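Repro:
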Amino acid sequence: MPIFMVERVYAEALEGVAAASDGINRINDEEDVRWLYSFLSADKRKTYCLYEAASPEAIRVAAERAGLPADEIVEVTERVLPDGASVPI
């Protein structure tokens, strides 16, 4: 299944992210989207999330249902390692 990086921009700093994850995971399951993990910016106003999904549209639908932004969705196919090698995801 394809892997996507999702950038989310929030109007205010995020607080209590863990409390919302159960509902988000339930919606993702219903949309056949798998949240792998996220990075939170230092100012807590952006997240960069890695997802497994059939399409960007599936991620958009899940995000809309969960009340989350999905400002940019980019398919990623390789990792670049510190030694410069590329590895398929």
